Amino acid sequence: METFSREVENVPTLLVPVGDIQYGTEGCRWEEFKEWFAEVLKMEPEYQLLFCGMGDFIDALRPTERGLYPRDSEHIKTSLEEKVENDTEDLMELFGPTKGKWLFTLRGHHYYDYHDGTTSDSRIADRLVCPFGGDTIYGTLNFKGANQYTIFARHGQGAASSTASAITRLRNQMSGNTADLNLRGHHHRTGVEKITTMSLNGRQKAKLIEHDRHGVLTGGWLRGYIEGRIEDGLPTGGYAERAGLNPIPVGGVKVWMNPQSKGLSVEVTV
Ligand SMILES: [Fe+2]
After folding, report:
1. From the CA of 114, how far away is ligand 1's center (Å)?
2. CA 112 – ligand 1 centroid, Å
3. What's the gap in Å between 156 CA and the centre of ligand 1?
4. Domain CATH code at residue 176
5. In whole angstroms, how far apart are CA 184 and each of 32, 144, 189, 253?
6. In this predicted model, what pLDDT tens digit does every residue of 129-174 receive, in sequence order?
C-alpha cells in the first residue's frame, strides 16, 4: 500500500475522482466524459480543483488478455504499443491543464505493461506529476492552517451487479480504515455511503463526539450494449451483454470540501 501527504490551499475545494473511462474501447462514452470534464474545469478558480485517478483510464489489455500475446513478437508489441500510446496521448491532451493537481492515480485492471517495468497507468501518473498509488493508497490532505482530511482509495475488485452490491463492497472497504473519505472505482456505478460513528472524549465528563465518514463509488464511462455490434461476421454482444448484465449507468461524482468547517458533501453527476 502507498501513502501520501499533500498540502493544499485553504480555500473551498472540489475533489474529483476520475477513472473507469476505458478509452479506446468501442463502448467508451468519450464525448460525454469530455463534456463532464470540461464542466469540472469551469469550476476553477471559484474552487480549488484536485483530482484522484481511479484506474482503468485506457482500455489496453484486460487481465485475461495480458498473458496472451507473444512478448517476443516485435511486430505485435509495436502495434499494441502504438495504440496504447495514441490513446494515452488523447487522454493527456484532455488532462493537460490539470497537471500537478492530481493527488494520485491507481492501477486498474485495464492497462498495458511495458517491457521496462512501467505500465500505461504508471506512465500516466508520471505525466500528471503525481504519485502512482498502485492498488491502494491512504493519505492526508492538509489544508494550510486548517483541517486535515484522510483519504483511502482503491480501484476495486470483484463483481457487483447492482448498486446495492457495490455499496456492500464499499462498506466493507470502509470497515478496514478510519478515513474521512473512501473512494472506490471498478464497478462503473456512482453512489454515496455515509457512516456516522460515535466516540467519547473527556476524563471528568464524557463528551460525545460524532464523526461523519463518506464512501464514494466513483462511476464510469462505459456503455454495456452497442446496437448492431458484429464480431466474426455475426451479431455478438460486448462483455456486459454476453455476461447477461444489465446496461450500466454512466457518470461521475464531485466531492465538495470546505476546509474551514471540515464539511464534505458529495454530488453524483451524469
Ligand atoms: Fe477494474
Report:
1. 19
2. 13
3. 6
4. 3.60.21.10
5. 21, 27, 10, 11
6. 999 999 999 999 999 998 899 999 999 999 888 889 999 999 999 9
